[in-house]
Structures are given as C-alpha cells and as structure tokens.
Amino acid sequence: MHHKLTFRPALALLLACSLSLPVAADPPHAGPVTRAAQILQEDESLQSAIRRKRPPGPILVAIGSALLFGVPEATGLPRACSPQLRVVNFSNAAISDIAFSIHFFTRKDERSVGSTVTNFIKVPVQGSVFRYFYQLDTDQCIGLKGQVKVIHCVYADGRDCGPDIRPVDGGAIPLYRQD
Questions:
Q1: Which top-level group of life is the source organism from (predicted)?
Q2: Which of 31, 68, 86, 137 is a plausible cystine mate for 130, CB 3.0–4.6 Å?
Q3: CATH number of the 59-177 domain
Q4: Is the pLDDT score of 81 beyond 70?
C-alpha cells in the first residue's frame, strides 16, 4: 500500500511537468505525408509526379567478402578463394535483368585466377542481392582485383541501366569497370 501512495504523486508530478513543456515543431522530414509534399512541385498532381522522370541512382557491384576454403594438410587439395558478389540497387527503378562478366587477376603480377558470367533478375529499388562464386584458382583471397564488363542491364520499365552500374573499388576484392 505504501508503494501506491509514492507512485501516484510521482506520476502526477511527471505528467504535470510534461504538459508544461513547449511542443517542438515537426521537422520538415517528419513523415511520409511531409516527404510526399516535398517531392511534389508547385501545382503538380500526385499522378504527374509519379510519371515524372527522376534521375537514376547508382547500381553498385561489389565483393564485400571472400571466403578461403580447403585444408590441404587433411585433404591434399589446394585452398581456394570464393568471392561473394553483391548487387545493390540505389536507382529509382526496379531492375528486371542484369548480367555481367568479371575477370579476376592478382594485383601484383596481373595473373588471371578465374572469371565468371553471372546475372540477377528482379532486383527491387533499394534492394540488394548476392551470390557466391565457384572457387578461384588461387590459394589466397587478398591481393586480387576484378574487371567488370556489363553485358546486359534493363530496368523494369525497359530502359537501359548499363550506364548506372558502378563497380566498387573497395571491399575484399576491388572491382573496376572494363570500357
């Protein structure tokens, strides 16, 4: 019973203090309605804003991690590097299909250690997909680089998204674009 008496006055005091505080104005990015109002231009309907062309964003191709497989001492087989390819769609449109090749080299002596052709379908806006490759012909994952060649890239609305692809020159294996 004693706890109820001390709890109620404390609750009343807290409520009184919170009611006396000034109310802060909502920031301009307060919610979806405010954001929608910022997207609309003056005297523009929502339908025309949806149809309006928006600048595309980048489509990132990266190898953020690479796994080293194999225990030569136990199996007699050499170690092998298996990179993880990630595609991140920062554009304003879904990707229907994207295909590219990657040729892997050692950075030190430009020795070829493998290549692949891969594709992804239905990559949503702000979406990310990934895939592991087969093993590269090297016993380590460090000291490698990859050359990306875009074969095909189409947004869901039929536009070409090839120019929006940006290989990432960081991560486990840096990538660069072959022109």
A1: Bacteria
A2: 86
A3: 2.60.40
A4: yes
Instruction: Dig out the tokens for 134 from the structure.
Output: 């087969």
pLDDT at 11: 44
3-state SS string over the chain? CHHHHHHHHHHHHHHHHHHHCCCCCCCCCCCHHHHHHHHCCCCCCHHHHHHCCCCCCCEEEEEEEEEEECCHHHHCCCCEEEEEEEEEECCCCCEEEEEEEEEEEECCCCCEEEEEEEEEEEECCCCEEEEECCCECCCCCCCEEEEEEEEEEEECCCCECHHHEEECCCCCCCEEECC
pLDDT digits (tens, 9 = 90+) for 110-122: 999 999 999 999 9
Judge whether 77 and 135 are in contact, CB under 8 Å: no
Question: Which residue from 140, 74, 86, 152 is spatially nearest to 113, judged by alpha carbons?
Answer: 140
